[in-house]
Specification:
Chain lengths: ~525, ~230
């Protein structure tokens, strides 16, 4: 339920709704877009960035939170571990149990490899389940992989690697077929064709969905499938804390921490797939996040210590519509599909200020501008936001439409006595996605041999901004590719497991007189309740 | 800032004091409980943080999600991060008509007596009991649609006096009926095009383009769609 002050503000939104109804806001010109981004997008805030002093990417700029992560020592003392006797030996070790990890494990197993999957939380607990809106794949008649390619590189400001984007969009339809063969029931139209929806920044309707619970339903089915496979062993509540390398510097396993028993154990593998996701829980630049509790950027620090090159870690996606009120829902996302259907973004004067279907970076920058220039709405907690006027959709499509099309969203707010059909939502840009990551090639392999990466941890695909629905696609495409390529390494001789790369990295830190109390990987962010 | 108000709650029988307005998970963290199981997305979607609680004066135990349930004075709470549910083994990819095998795979479905305990527990407000009767009657599409919102928290299974796991059975049905539907025409056509290497020449050109010509190319292609 809204507070009295907010209800008064909502009054303004209601009074101006009709006047906003038929006004069209044109799309911004390229020049204006750039100016808006450079002035208000967090990626352009110079004081939030610094230059890396160690490792392969020395000299590159990144945000302080990521630099702190990389310029740090491990929290653990590995002297207790017996490196001669691993707890388990396998062909492929998959780290991370979200969409990318499960997909990689399934494909590696199908290709005849023995697989161990270790994950920090419960299997499937990941950002994948929170991908509500849908997945891009060019299946529509008007559409083509080439069109999908152009939309993706334009959104990424031409910073994505062409080869990787090509692979992603061309594999798309095949991935859809694979998912459907596993029993994933995408929405269909009357003719039985796959239903496609519009998304911001896309030139054609291309989003496939399962109601407003797309990611969740895919993960449920993948989980059901992986539990039915003979050759996949699953370790839950077992985050990876370090990779191991052979004397030649090739990746050959990992040190895992058993959260329940507070013990380390070693897994030896012929190839390793890192799929531990992004870094939203680092709360970069103090932003609220939509990310899962476990998204602490572990993959980048582990791979970096092992010598893998990173790409594009100076760019993050801020999803425009994360909840600001009530407090316990801060950061929960309202899907972009709501804006695709015509919901308005409205400031405290009751005015629209941006075409809601611009790409996410532009919309976020415009919202930050409104709030910084004093046209935001202040919640009781002191957080500021703008209104997402959902009742506009009710006026256009009739009563019951939102309730029927977005049951999850409707219920979530119904619980706290907010009716999204009649009341707007208070939203602010929310740290959503790590655009960069560990650089991969078309096989999903990094610059370290036998180390593969899939999912949000991977970099080079989305450039400086990701299209809605492209991450749900990329986790399956590169999960599959990494899984298949890794399985081909099963005749490798992994050699002795060492932490030589970590020693080397520490030496570099010490030579630079970098002393720090920060310990990484974080595994869990120390949670501070801010109220 | 006005003075913080506090509430006293009981966590697994132990009394703790936390600020008003916290969720169960926040209350646990605030009081130094190191919980890893039972925490996940913090958005009410992953189903990791099922809780059972008794409200003061309440006659029966209620259920919810720890990240979405706000603590109230004198609430008696326990976290239920896991409940064993039977998962059958099957290879759906190689099954001819999987839905016909439903009772072979999950014979316990017919043990359901529609007592309704499962529906009361569901934090997603799914009428699980109705889903189960639909499944028994062969109304699979309707049942599947109702279960779209299921987050696999397992609370329904924990309440079932017959030890049935509705969330797992309906998952098999969801997969099985999709296998019965024909491949969509638009998808089939696109896959054929890709198989025939329809765009191969364009791709060759794209990969050779420098940034300037790529920009022009993209603009042209995107204009065509408008």
């Amino acid at each position: 339920m809204y507070s009295k002050e907010l209800l008064e503000q909502i009054f303004i939104v209601e009074n101006t709704r009709e006047s906003r109804f038929n006004r069209k806001i044109p799309s911004l010109s390229g020049e204006k877009k750039n100016f808006l981004l450079e002035t208000f997008h967090p990626d352009f805030k110079a004081s939030a960035f610094r230059t890396l002093r160690v490792g392969v990417n020395r000299g590159d700029g990144t945000v302080h939170e990521i630099a702190d992560l990389l310029e740090a020592f491990s929290i653990f003392d590995y002297r207790d571990i017996d490196f001669e006797i691993p707890e388990a030996e396998t062909d492929v070790l998959v780290l991370g149990g979200g969409g990318a990890g499960i997909t990689a494990a399934l494909f590696a197993e199908s290709a005849g490899a023995k697989v161990v999957l270790a994950t920090k939380l419960r299997l499937g607990n990941s950002n994948t389940i929170m991908a509500l809106g849908g997945m891009q794949a060019s299946v529509g008649e008007e559409d083509s992989p080439v069109k999908h390619f152009t939309d993706t590189v334009v959104a990424g400001q031409f910073k994505g690697k062409k080869e990787l984007v090509k692979v992603m969009v061309s594999d798309g339809p095949q991935i859809v077929k694979w998912l459907m063969d596993l029993g994933v029931n995408f929405d269909r139209d009357e003719k039985g064709n796959l239903l496609t929806k519009m998304a911001g920044g896309s030139s054609v309707a291309r989003i496939l969905s399962i109601g407003d619970y797309t990611g969740l339903n895919i993960v449920k089915i993948l989980k059901d499938e992986i539990r039915n496979r003979e050759n996949i062993d699953i370790f839950e509540f077992s985050p990876v804390v370090e990779l191991t390398t052979s004397e030649f510097g090739e990746c050959n396993g990992a040190v895992i921490f058993d959260l329940e028993r507070k013990q380390f154990f070693l897994i030896k593998a012929k190839a390793v797939i890192l799929a531990t996701g992004g870094s939203g829980r680092l709360h970069i630049q103090g932003f609220q996040t939509s990310n899962n509790f476990g998204a602490t950027g572990d993959a980048i620090v582990l791979a970096y210590r092992a010598g893998a090159k990173l790409e594009g870690l100076d760019s993050f996606q801020y999803h425009p519509t994360g909840i600001v009120y009530p407090d316990h829902m801060v950061g929960v996302l309202v899907t972009e599909a709501i804006r695709s259907l015509g919901a308005h973004l409205v400031n405290s004067k009751g005015k629209r200020f941006i075409n809601e279907l611009e790409t996410r970076d532009v919309v976020s920058a415009a919202m930050i501008k409104e709030c910084e220039e004093g046209r935001g709405i202040v919640a009781p907690s002191g957080r500021v936001g703008v209104w997402l006027d959902t009742p506009v959709i009710t006026e256009k499509r009739g009563k019951g439409f939102l309730r029927e099309k977005f049951p999850a969203l409707y219920r979530m707010f119904r619980r706290i006595k907010i009716d999204i059909e009649n009341q707007p939502l208070l939203v602010y840009p929310t740290l959503h996605y790590q655009n960069g990551g560990i650089l991969i090639d078309e096989k999903g392999e990094t610059t370290v041999k036998n180390l593969f990466v899939a999912g949000e941890a991977a970099g080079g695909i989305h450039g400086r901004n990701r299209l809605m629905g492209n991450s749900l696609l990329d986790i399956f495409v590169f999960g599959r590719r990494a899984g298949l390529s890794a399985a081909r390494r099963k005749f490798n001789e992994p050699g002795k497991q060492t932490l030589n790369h970590v020693d080397k990295y520490y030496k570099e830190l010490k030579n630079l007189r970098i002393t720090t109390v920060a310990k990484t990987p974080r595994i869990f962010q120390e949670f501070i309740v801010v109220k | 800032m006005p003075d913080k108000k506090y509430v006293t709650i009981f966590l697994e029988g132990r009394r703790i004091r936390v600020p008003e307005g916290y969720t169960v998970i926040e209350a646990l963290w605030d009081t130094g409980h190191d919980i890893k199981r039972g925490v996940g997305c913090l958005s009410g979607l992953c189903g990791a943080c099922a809780v059972a609680y008794l409200e003061p004066g309440g006659k029966r135990v209620k259920f919810g999600l720890g990240c979405q349930t706000i603590v109230k004075e004198k609430m008696d709470i326990t976290v239920m991060p896991f409940f064993p549910s039977r998962m059958a083994k099957y290879d759906i990819s190689n099954m001819e008509k999987p839905i016909d095998k439903l009772l072979e795979i999950y014979p316990e479905l017919n043990m359901c007596k529609s007592c309704g305990f499962c529906s009361v527990a569901c934090p997603e407000w799914i009428n699980v009991s109705k889903v189960m009767s639909y499944l028994k009657d062969g109304r699979y599409e309707e049942a599947t649609e109702m279960m779209f919102d299921c987050i696999l928290c397992g609370l329904c299974a924990s309440r079932c006096p017959r030890g049935i796991a509705p969330q797992i059975i309906s998952l098999f049905v969801q997969r099985a009926i999709e296998k019965d539907r024909p491949v969509p025409e638009n998808l089939r056509n696109r896959l054929k095009e890709i198989e025939d290497l329809k765009d191969e020449e364009i791709w060759g050109n794209i990969l050779k383009m420098d940034e300037k010509s790529l920009k022009d190319f993209c603009e042209k292609v995107r204009k065509e769609s408008d």
